[in-house]
Fold each of these.
Amino acid sequence: MATDTTAPARAPRERSDRKRRLLTHIGLIAFGLVMLYPLLWMVSSSFKPTSEIFREPGLIPWNFTPENYSEGWTALEYPFHHYLLNSAMVVGGSIVGNLIGCSMAAYAFARLEFRGKRLLFAVMLATIMLPIHVVIVPQYILFAQLDWINTFYPLIVPKLLATDGFFIFLMVQFIRGLPRDLDEAARIDGCGHVRIFLRIILPLSMPALATTAIFTFIWTWNDFFSQLIFLTRPDMYTVPVALRTFVDSSSQTSWGPLFAMSVVALGPVFGFFLAGQRYLVKGIATTGIK
Amino acid sequence: MSALLQRGTRPASPAAPAAGRRRTAARGTGRRKRESLAAYGFLAPWFLGLALITAGPLLASLYFSFTDYNLIGDHEVIGWANYERMLDDARLHSALRVTFVYVFVSVPLQLALALALAMVLDRGVRGLALYRSVYYLPSLLGGSVAIAILWRQVFGAEGLVNQVLALFGVQGPGWVSHPDHALSTLIVLNVWTFGAPMVIFLAGLRQVPAMYYEAAAVDGAGPVHRFVHITLPMLTPIIFFNLVLQIINAFQTFTQAFIVSGGTGGPSDSTLFYTLYLYQEGFGAFHMGYASAMAWLLLMIIGGFTAVNFLASKFWVFYGD
């Protein structure tokens, strides 16, 4: 606290400071509420009868209707957990694929010397910017010839082949920050590159691997474009594709169940967001991708 | 990114004593060869991906853009016909117009909002982590089908927005079903996901040395002065980075327009984003040749804007040291 001599002089200024801080908080909270209101309203509306969704802008579901969830769960050709399971398989495969493929490539770029390294690294960076729309037609033709349409391979195998350059870049950055003394020591002890990679680099790269896993989860869970193109048979639908058929087939009467299933679809992303916030914010701040 | 630029090559190992030089050199090349082989081994999946998933298909789609191909039967090389068709394809022109309006309205708004909030949060607000998370959440969810469904309701004729307007006695239009308003709802959706660039701005603001502000305060500079002469110039690399990234992202927007318009790009093509039209041509009508030509035009447009961005950056981006 301030001493006696300065207290009277300081008090008014401190008070106006506090007032300004309070105003800032009020502004920030109000803005946050406006931003989140549609989300909160969606969750609340998923418990309202459909007729009220189109009349009631408030957040309290006065006529609590959990039936929306059971109704939505069975509204499509397959029960909703079928689509959740499909999504889980695609996401799980993508995470494993990215962790293996990208970490291997990242080790080579970060630690090994080889001919054409600079050029290949530049090519890798360029592929980060490559829009999927530019390559989707030949990919589709290739996968159709392999008879992979309506399987999960077109969604998972590319990850295993390290085509998500962004994650290679993220891991290269991380591995470059690890001290080299450890690999040098291991090399003197007679370790080969495979063992250095498996025993030293990978265990130390856990934070980068975690960031990769979380981002892969969220992006793949939300991905719509490629799943829409490669999965056209209802039993192979993932959550986003299933939701799309739901919204196309539903009239105004089934918005309650539709909202309920949308909330179910957002749930896992929200969970990962809560669990992995630290990695997410750090990941964005250092690499700049959403 | 900066770590990438700063780290130079490692200094060469000190010269070996003359006597053993030849032997170590021989052993050195052997080791180097082994290291190269190991590197190609580690890169094997990536090489395969390059050939089959990224670079290979990129070249293949250039080839297909000169063909007529509907997936069934053979493709026929037809020269520039697909590109000529583009010249008088009215839907393509309206797709281009819609996409350009979307990119050049939503990205500046989104970045301005991101910067403004980052500046407020950077002034030592308590609970920064919480605010940051709350504002960031929409960026994670914004691209999903579920949020697009929500948008379709919120901006529908009897949606949330009009319910709120009704409380003030205003009768709003059916935003998503009106050709004059449908695109704006998607612009709002993109602005809503300002959290990701905001987090990057916040990280950038941390890098501005406090002594600049102290010196300016001593000279009696006001807040506007400080913003224009210190914050803005110091942030230009981050603004540039966000701008390039968000423009590239915005050009590729698909899900939101697809869901909100039910896959049609309507009403009256007012939400026919470029990628949506590409999807309709390629995977609705199976005009694989035309879709490939469209893909290459998109690549040229995105590449062109990125290049212009980089060239123009010489005149306004300020790299401190």
Amino acid sequence: MVTYIVRRLITAALILLGASFLVYLLTAASGDPLEEYRASSAPNKQQLIDARTELLQLDTPAPLRYFKWLGGAAQCLIPFANSCDLGKNIAGQPITDALGHALIQTLTLVTGATILAILIGITLGIVTALRQYSTLDYGVTFMAFLFFSLPIFWVAVLLKEFGAIGFNDFLRNPDVPMATALGIGAVAGVITAVAAGGAMKRRLLTGGVAFLFVSAVLIYFSATEWFKNPGLGPVVIAIAGVGIAFAVTLLSAGLKNRKALQSALIAVGVGLVVYFLIQPLLDEATFLMMVLLAVAAVLVGLAIGFLMGGYDRGQSMRAAALTSFLVGFLIMLDRYMQAWPSYFNNSRVRGRPIATIGASTPNIEGDFWILSLDSFTHLILPTLALILISLAGYTRFTRASMLEIMNMDYIRTARAKGLSERTVVMRHAFRNALIPIATIVAFDIGGLIGGAVITESVFSVRGMGFLFLDGIQHIDPNPVMGVFICVAITAMVFNLIADLAYSALDPRVRVKA
Amino acid sequence: MAESAGVDVPDVVGIEPILEAKGLSQGQIVRKRFLGHSGAIIGLVVFAIIFIMAFTSVGYAGIPGWWKYSHEDVSPLIHDGAPTASIFPPAWGEHPFGQDRIGRDLFAMTMRGAQQSITIMIVIGLIAGLIGVIVGALSGYFRGWTEAVLMRLTDVIIIIPALLLAAVMAQLAGRRDSGSWFASFASNNGVLAIGIFLGLISWVGLARLMRGEFLSLREREFVDAARISGASNARIIFKHILPNAVGVLIVNVTLTMSAAILTETALSYLGVGVKAPDTSLGLLISQNQAAFATRPWLFWFPGLFIVLICLSINFIGDGLRDAFDPRQKKFNAKKAAEIEVDPAPVTAFDELKGK
Amino acid sequence: MRFGRISKAVGVAAAAALALSACAGNSGGTTPTTAAAAGKTGGSATVVEVNAFNTFNPNTADGNTDINSKISYATHSGFFYIDNKLNVVRNEKFGKMEKSSDDPLTVKYTINDGVKWSDGTPVTTADLLLQWAAFSGYYNDADTEAKTGTSYFSYAGDPTGLALTDFPELSDDGKSMTIKYSKPFADWEIALGGPGIDIPAHVLAKKAGLTDAKAFVDLLKGMPRGDKAAPKPANAQLQAMSELWNTGFDTKTLPADPSLYLSNGPYIVKGVNQDQSLTMVKNKDYAWGPEAKLDEITVRYIGDSAAQVQALKNGEADIIAPQASADTVEQLKTLESQGVTVEVGNQLSYDHIDLNYSGPFAEKNVREAFMKSVPRKDIVDKIVKKLDPKAAPLDSQLFVPDQASYADSVKNNGSSAYQDVDIEGAKKLLNGATPEVRIMYNKDNPNRVDAYSLIRESATKAGFKIVDGGLGKSDWGKALGDGSYDATIFGWINSGVGVSGVPQIFKSGNDSNFNMFSDPDADKLMDELIVTTDKTKQNELITQVDKKIWDSAYGLPLFQAVGVDAYSDRITGVKYMPNQTGVWWNFWEWAQK
């Protein structure tokens, strides 16, 4: 095992050396850094050309420049020496600084999108696999391929037009006409009916309920100007909490496990009590506090489950922990909604909360809630765009993997010995289907750092992709190399992790030493 | 539709195809299943229509087409360039898709763009398929040093950013007199050059996948049987193993092809793809993205064709995947046993795609 | 036309040259125009820029991007600024700049009392001297060929004017400075002291280990002019200072040390959010120039034009100046219903087609025939009319329509023969010949591509065989003048319009004379031009050169580039400006409604 890892790391280092040499030469060969001066009629044209030539050391052949660069880069390997030198870009900024900044920008942009895309993609993949060749399957497949086929700059322009500008206009006077409410309700009803599956009667019933519910809620929201002063309140949290308790129990333990259901319901009750107690504390919230509260919620849930006991303590604990975490999330959501009006009317926001560019409103001031709302309103559009286009891959892959597993002999065995469908799907099929998915996820996380070139440019985020593209456009090898090194190292590390994870998850796969 | 009564019981696919496959050869099963996949059939028909329309309307390689304009002809602006096609009464008019700002016919440009995009797609499919199969087959079959060298080569290609290669490539294609045969080829056959180039970097995902297939297939009994009866390595690879891996191969080639169109679009958006005055669908929509609100037809028609081509190719691939599925399932269980790396269809430009 | 990293100095020089030649009557106006603005004081505005801010010294070769110049312009003041009519407007509240003698050309700069940096230190001639030392390259003795000597300040602008001066004469009170030119220099008015005196000498001196600004003045006084032929060892102190000048002000965040971003202008930088935004607030002390109305200006960076328009539409930006295209302008026009004001105007650059005086075009008849077949009106109609309904083909190689002499020059220069496409005339001149013409242009610039397509279409009708010689964006510049093509379509950026730019392009054998135009008479006229300080005389000479160029069938100017800016209904006082200062030229008049 250790020999294997060491061997992989050594080959990785060699590959990195070779590839970085290639990348450097390619960048240097990819254009003419003096282009902007060539057609200039400035009297000091030659002087400007000389200055640029000196800055980029153009009179040194590219291979030699590479070794100079390598000399500086090699110092990054000396721990604690702080002598890392990746050169400077064309505007004189050290690459190490530029990289640090770009990395943060990129990670804020793509992390949420990737995680959500993975979660939604896997869920959709499983659902479509379980209902292969149903209307739902075809619908999801069509939508996934459709979004996959759309160029992202197009998606971005549309999202900005309707999701930001249109929605902000709507928020100015949040009035949903009756016809619109009914229309949206009808769409929701149809979707639910299709998704529900089963006999026609059942479909119609669920569809109808969804239609009535959505329309009524919209009309209620419109009448009470909910969009201006949103909030959940304890009643909604209670109702939603009970729903969550049932759903979580259904998936994690099965409704037959009464103890688990009771634990989950108790967790909801505790959550409601905490809702009232915690409000003053939440006014002083910080990020760390939120993390601690989330941990506390999970611990409380575990404790409830443990105390309830029952024949399968673990299941109760799991159900209660998950429920209390989700109820905690609802409480947090409610607090965000309480902060919404003051964010909405902030003098910097001026009643147009959904942003089309950047990562935050310049100079905005406020507490934790205002600031994180500001981040959300800026991240929501690029995140949506990235999710839409990357959903297809995960959905299709999960579906294929799940279908394959569902045909396995051991699934038939599991069914044959009388296990419930829930147990078969959740415990036998799903976990095994996750094995190959875990490896693509690892690859994707490795690729995260490379940034999303076009998304960054359309949403004016200057992350890794921008740095890379800008370097290429100015024929400036240093930023290109900086980004390349980061991306290549993470990609290779995660590649290795993916291989190791594969063998860890699937005992049949042996790592060859 | 076979909506079985059981609400929670998924279709038991494992049983149905066996009945269906009784007495048929592998090809027949696949064809039968493929033809039964309505999505794939619609995709196939749509793609065929686009293909025929694109290649006959404005002509190809010197053969004139039936449409009166070429993508380079400038004609006087009619209705400020708005589309003249109408549904009621149904008529094409002079410029069915409209005209761009200097009066070129958008229908001709879209058709030319579709030609180019399809050409790129097919070239990529061929090249990536060929290299991917060879590299994957050799490293999976022979293992040892062959495998080590070839797999490390794919590693190098995977980590070199496609965008950078494209920039270098575009730079060479934009150059005229640099003397090398490559530059002159690239400048005379812009699209072909891009296709070849993308093909040369997008085989890596396929190679990894094929290697996985070969790793598991070479351990199978029929391979042992062939080896014992004295078959040469080449014969085992091409006659015994490859036909069994062809399902995975075709599916992934189609996926690579549809991703290729989007890659070309992304490259054109970033200014390193096909160069004007020649055109491609990607170039058309990236050139006209500012026209989104003002002259939307310049944006919608080429965009529509990109989406249609991608969708139809994806559905064809999807149909093929499902058609090959029943046969796949058996050895997939064992495939996992030997695999060292994952069989995900990761292509070199997946991450570039559109993002 | 995107003004990426064009030297600010070149732009200003061009603008000034324009101003000097065009507005002979009224150059050197005295008081800043204080428009009767509608807005009240206070409030804030968000302005969108394409590039991200990265240095407080916009004069260095690395730092002179438009954004750095604009921030420097808003936070510093000087003896003059340039208005949107391209006049040099003197700021007498800051100080006086007077020409005390024509021969030798002598200019005296006097800084008013009370003008000070934001740390309280008065602005003195030491600051002006620092600018002079940097801009003139006086102390440099570097020889790039021989690799000897030292180059101190890495200045991006053109040092030729100030290089003609000797060490300035300084008054004892540190308030006035006199420089003497050894030869007449047409652009003296904008050579020094504005639009901003941006680097404080006392900060630089202290950081380089000198006691104060006076020590710095003494140091410079004691040093002789640098001589390439006899390089001296580098002066350590000056080198330390120039090093600091070159890179010490580079930053992407707000420096911890406030002396690195001192202001002596209407605004002072308050916060820099790396690669996202920059915020400036009013400089409370400032009282020596036009008074600013807004309390706060925020600059955000958006590269993509469509994203800029949508940001304006969504209220995230108040003032934008995206790259102009028909679609951008039209999109902006649709926003007019929600109160957005759109301004369209000319820029100081123009596209043109040049014919080589060799190959198929060696014969004048062929050149003329080709020129007759260029559909200039059609090109203008299709490429720029949508943006600017008043657009017309440019009819002079040397003037732009904003200049008074344009009309006179156009009347006589012979451009009238090429107003309309004359296929018959072209055919007659060709006399049955079908010359093959390779046209080179930048394939990555849609305007050039479209102009090429239209010319190809029309010239083919006249019998020319057009070969597409378009090259990618990184190659076309290199190909200029290498003889691999017969005609080329490209743009001269503004400096082509200036006086010193004229011989650069049109004199025999010069660097930027890519098509090898050569006319002994024109050469003589241009020699005379560069030593002429009288503006009327200058215009006369340029008019004569213009005619010579047209007479020899040089090629055709096509159209002037169009610029656009737009601002929301929250803001008033924004005015279009053709040079790269853009809307910023009168930022003090911006106000919130």
